[in-house]
Amino acid sequence: MAELDYKVKNACQVVLSALERSSDVPLIVNFSGGKDSAVLLDLVRSVTGRCICFSCVSGLEFPDVACMVQRTADSLGVELMWSYPDDYKGDFFQRLEQLKHFPTIISRWCSRDLKWRPQKKALTRRFGSHQFFKLNAVRRYESSRRNKIYQKQEFFRPDPDVSGDMMVYPIIDWTDEERDEYIRVNGLKVETNPLYEKYSVSGCIWCPFYQAAIYKRILSFEPDMYDRFIEWEGKLCQPSVIGYVYLRDLKAERIKGG
Predict the structure, then answer these.
(1) Which pTM was predicted?
(2) Range(s) for CATH 3.40.50.620 in the chain?
């Protein structure tokens, strides 16, 4: 509990620092409706009421994800702003048509063009041209990949996709146990996302970081989920899965295996 108290105090100091640097513009809390973002929101609201929850619709979400996010926001009594790919340059397949290659780990144009730049457009329309401080519930202990990306305990990073804005990570060093203890102690009510248990992922149906095993699992429930991606693999003569794997082959394997 002493360690959690320290982490809470430190996270609140990060939020205060972002608040001081954001002038008169509200802090932007990127909100997914899950445990981590609910904890982050609760921490932010314990420090300031000058914040806005924001959900970026990529257009690649599993069905009902947006509804779950809205339900959670409603239950917590917070305003929720949204952005959509059409706020920038169009949806995933429109960008694929223009760019002629799938997003990769190195070139993640999907998050840039479908989420962060549309978000900037929506924020600028509402608040004008400002530097925005966007608080994210990323934790480096969530996965080995994130632990590698966030080896340094950096609470502030320049937004790589939106020039001038800052990404802020108040709970970057929290463990699963600390997050769950915070939820219990503070009586937060967070809707469990059933997608984690079913697919082992939530949010987007496709991601440049997903391994073949994830797609196999999803295909076992939804064999036609990726037909449009498979069509584009053929058009571009490119695989869409990390490791030079084609979704068409994963689906064929799924059909063959019954």
Answers:
(1) 0.90
(2) 2-194
- 55 membership: H or E segment, kind and range: strand 51-56
What is the sign, positive or negative, of the torsion defined by CA atoms of 237, 241, 244, 245?
Answer: negative
Q: What is the dihedral of CA 92, 93, 94, 96, to 10 degrees?
A: 90
Q: What residues contact 154, with CB distance under 8 A and at least 6 apart?
A: 169, 172
pLDDT tens digit string along 176-204? 999 999 999 999 888 778 888 888 888 89
Q: How distant, in Å, are the alpha carbons of 201, 217, 219 from that of 213?
A: 11, 6, 10
Paired sense of beta strands 133-135 and 80-83, if any: unpaired
Does the pLDDT value for residue 109 go beyond 80? yes
SS3 state of residue 54: strand
**d(C-alpha 42, C-alpha 38), whole Å:** 6
Contacts of 129 (CB under 8 A, 6+ apart): none
**pLDDT recorded at residue 190:** 81
> What is the spatial order of strands in the sheet that 80-83 belongs to?
80-83, 51-56, 27-30, 133-135, 166-168, 156-158
Residue 57 has pLDDT above 90, yes or no: yes
Q: Which two tokens stand for residue 164?
A: 């001038």
* Residue 258: half-sphere exposure toward Cβ, Cα within 13 Å: 0
Tokens representing residue 28 in the block: 């932007």
Instruction: Supply the DSSP symbol for 26.
Output: P
Is residue 72 scored above 90 in pLDDT? Answer: no
**Unique residue bearing structure tokens 């799924």:** 254
Categorize the per-residue pLDDT at 166 as very low, low, confident or very high, splitting at 50, 70 and 90.
Answer: very high
> What is the share, in percent, of the chain residues with pLDDT greater than 70?
95
Q: Which class does domain 2-194 fall in?
A: alpha beta
